[in-house]
Specification:
Layout lengths: L20 H19 L3 H22 L6 H12 L11 H15 L7 H12 L17 E4 L6 E5 L6 H14 L11 H15 L6 H17 L7 H6 L2 H11 L6 H35 L5 H11 L12 H8 L3 H13 L3 E5 L7 E4 L2
Antiparallel strand pairs: 1-2, 3-4
Length: about 375
């Protein structure tokens, strides 16, 4: 089998957009709706929504690669960098710190031309704590393969260009990326289309020893933001991670030919799902803000600490809900105080019952 980069028309990607015009119209409509939702929020709530999306992207892009980061560490990293914590909170996990900083860099520099130096900087942020060579193209002699299966029964899904081809291929990719941006001589005006091609093109070169998927998704986000003319507010990785098998299959098929209509259709669908997730996240942030306004006169610092920690996990709070044992652990109070607080929050309708057990086994969720 010849892969896309081995074919005579590489990297002359071709596609037919007539079948995905509805996708592109939906993207434009959703973009306007999300922008309106965000502008309607108070400044502090806007900032919270933006941070929540950056955290989601950082966490989910790592989960796709089988790496699980602490959501709290990623959020602390982002807030520290933006100066939103009253005092800097130490982040012990360097992977989480790097992932958080990458989200900020991608967002703050979306309008700048792509460069080798920028990609190397991103790579260092993501993998500085790993054993791989960081901030440089791969140079090993072994084939760069995407494989699955057990030892002795491996299945090769894709083989990237050999390492000695990477510098030239990446020079061509970077030139293509910049020339297809706004005002470029090969400008691609449809943001989802440019994003889809950029991601596939980069993943097909696979220029780094590790981290290609995460960098490739950051490039897809940069392409969207540049073409839209403002930082995009969505998490592509959250939409991809919800059905990783489909993502890998679509990528595998797309890397067998430079006719990529089906890939663009798939990726546009991913972007649309990501936009729906963004609408839901903005709505949740707004409901959370209204919730605290509604109950501010009945909550003490202990209550607020517990509820805020629960809501970090999303609308349903902690998996399995809150109980007396978790409450004691979070607040460092006695069992009696924990039980009394939980009963008080239930009576004030701050909490609702998830499941009624006996004593410590009674579970609660936030009534948001």
């Amino acid at each position: 089998m010849k892969y896309n980069w081995q074919q005579n028309d590489w990297p002359g990607f071709n596609y037919d957009l007539s079948g995905i015009e509805d996708h592109l119209l939906l993207f434009a409509e959703k973009t306007g709706h999300i922008s309106g939702m965000l502008k309607a929020l108070p400044d502090a709530t806007q900032t919270e929504a933006i941070i929540e999306m950056m955290v989601a992207e950082a966490v989910k892009t790592s989960e796709i690669e089988g790496e699980y980061l602490s959501r709290r560490d990623v959020m602390s990293s982002i807030k520290n960098k933006l100066g939103l914590n009253s005092e800097s909170i130490p982040v012990s996990d360097k992977r989480a710190a790097g992932a958080g900083l990458l989200m900020i860099r991608v967002r703050e520099t979306y309008h700048k031309a792509l460069s080798k130096e920028q990609l190397f900087s991103w790579h260092k942020l993501l993998l500085s704590s790993s054993a791989v060579k960081v901030g440089q193209w791969r140079d090993h002699q072994e084939p760069m393969q995407v494989i699955s299966g057990t030892i002795g029964k491996e299945k090769v899904h894709f083989e990237a260009p050999p390492s000695n081809m990477v510098p030239e291929e990446m020079d061509l990719f970077i030139a293509w990326f910049n020339e297809t941006g706004p005002g470029g001589k090969r400008e691609i005006k449809n943001a989802p289309v440019r994003s889809a091609v950029a991601h596939l093109y980069f993943e097909s070169i696979h220029p780094f020893e590790d981290g290609n998927g995460r960098i490739g998704r950051a490039i897809a986000e940069k392409a969207l933001s540049q073409t839209m003319g403002r930082p995009v507010l969505l998490s592509l990785s959250k939409a991809i991670e919800s059905n990783k098998a489909t993502y890998y299959e679509a990528l595998k098929v797309a890397q067998q030919s430079n006719e990529i209509t089906s890939w663009i259709s798939y990726f546009c669908d991913v972007i649309f799902k990501a936009q729906i997730n963004t609408e839901e996240q903005i709505d949740f942030v707004l409901r959370k803000s209204k919730f605290f306004d509604r109950y501010r006169d009945v909550l003490n610092e202990r209550h607020i600490k517990v509820i805020s920690r629960m809501l970090e996990e999303g609308p349903d709070g902690f998996k399995g809900g809150m109980n007396a044992t978790k409450y004691e652990s979070l607040t460092k109070v006695s069992k009696a105080t924990a039980t009394r607080d939980l009963q008080y929050l239930l009576e004030k309708r701050v909490f609702t019952l998830m499941e009624t057990g006996r004593g410590r086994n009674t579970k609660y969720r936030v009534n948001i």
